[in-house]
Amino acid sequence: MSVVSVNAGPKRGWKSVSTWIGAVIVGIATFCALAAPWIVPYDPFAQDLGKRLIVPFWMAGGSTEHLLGTDQLGRDYLSRLIWGCRISMLIGVTVTVVSGLIGIAIGVLGGFLGGRVDDAVLFAITTRLSIPVVLVALAVVGLLGSSMTLLVLTLGLLLWDRFAVVARSTTMQVRNLDFVAAAWCAGCSRFRILAREVLPNIASHLVVVATLEVALAILLEAALSFLGLGVPPPLPSWGLMIAEAKDYMFFSPWVIVIPGVALFVLVLGINLLGDGLRDLFGARTDP
Amino acid sequence: MLSFLTRRLIVAFLVAATVMTLAFILTRLSGDLATSIAGPNATEADIDAIRKAYGLDRPVLAQFFDWVGRALTGDLGESYFFKARVSTLIAERMPVTFTLGLTGLVIALAVSLPLGILAAVRENTTLDRCVQLVALLGQAMPSFWLGLILMITLGLQLGWLPISGTGSWQHFVMPGIVLAFSAIPALTRLTRAGMIQAMGSDYIRTARAKGLSRASILLKHALRNAAIPVVAIAAVQLGFMLGGSIVIEQVFALHGVGYLAWESIGKNDFPVVQAVVLVLAVIYVALTMLADLMNAVLDPRLRGP
Fold first, then answer.
1. Cα Dmax for chain B
2. Is the ipTM of this complex over 0.90?
3. Exposure winner among B143, B190, B211, B240, fewest CB in 10 A?
4. Do A223 and B30 touch (CB under 8 A)?
5. A243 in Cβ contact with A228 (< 8 Å)
6. Nearest Cα to A207, choosing from A269, A279, A125?
7. Confidence tier at B296 by pLDDT (50, 70, 90)
8. Nearest CA among A185, A178, A179, A246 for reference residue B250
9. CB–CB of A11 and B124 under 8 A?
């Protein structure tokens, strides 16, 4: 229970700037993800072998025709980057929904019921933490073949631990508060107390965890796709773009710099936003 | 203390047993293993022969208990692809993964401890905010990408470090830096929080009142208390690093356990895959127990009556 946060004047101002930066990045990414089919300048899947590895516009030999150049198969890099944003966001959000449902259900039950149920929940969390995520995800995709659905389900089944930990500890705190006792006295059912008293009061903590999980899922998807066992080609996942461009990186480093920077900035933006929300809600996300 | 240890041991054993079951189920997910081992060009007779040779024609439960029984005696089965004992394969590759993990941990601690202390001492200044920003940047860094960027810059353009392989200690520097990035944010935040809490405590006020030097207060009194959770988390982080090193081993062509697992996944060599999952999980459980023990040894308050 070591909470150290001193909200002095200057920190607040700085915090709000970083939160806004995060919000803007996430906003742009969400727009790109939703509007990708209409805003891409070219078809992200169309190959043009006559136009392979054109450099971005700011480098010598680049043109504004392909702003970020083209890849090793002549596909427009900007279009692939925007489409990749759609895939990253889609996977980040869906994995978080799956893992959130599992983790919140387990955590709230353990925290609310206590006793044997809570022991079982703690055991499940301990076991989950001992399982190497990347290795198991790779093994599942490797054995069953790569598809988006399988990837989302696998990561969702592996990443619920932080949701469970935070849902459990916050539920325990709320459970003992006066208004819950009042609801018991008023004769409310268990379910009603869970749904109307407990969940709304732990929701802010869970929103912060959700931002962290979206960021983590996006990073993991990129790593798995980079290893060739994530999103199947020719879908332009950023991890897959880096893997496909790897052979050319020593001669034209920009081919891996562009998708990598996009990935880094998106994850940073989500984390900045989550950090700001945590301060705003006064939420705790550490077990 | 003893009952605490026994409880921890029982839980550790149950966790290992559960992971074992999950690892077994995991490798049976694909359905018929014999077909996938035999490959696309195998005839029905080949597949039957493989099924017999590896005991896959027996009931699944019999296979499971056979595996558990053997694993308890340290026999993790035989690899289909490498035609060698799995335990030997893992033992051969483990030094590389451990060297990588320890290098990563040492680099992470060498960066996090000074950064965390600096941030705590200069709390709420620009320096503090810069340190927190570094932690956030580290958290957002895709490790495999950082690895590639280091290969281009430190390896190719500056020529300071070798790009891939395991020939000398220099080969572990770049992967170590990349692996350290995953632990730096958590360790820095924890050091900072611990130091801030320690600096606000009564014993520090006493030490100040006694007229001790600033360095002595910081390093002897505050750090010793702030280090307790950091040391414990460092052990847990090492566990995560060993499990996560699979990506970095692949990027830098380091032939450790992660690389072995990656090769085996591609070859449907399921005895190796399930064994690596189990071994990494057991190491993680052992490290978390070690962390609890260290906590108890370093902080008498946690030992209880």
1. 86
2. no
3. B211
4. no
5. yes
6. A279
7. confident
8. A246
9. yes
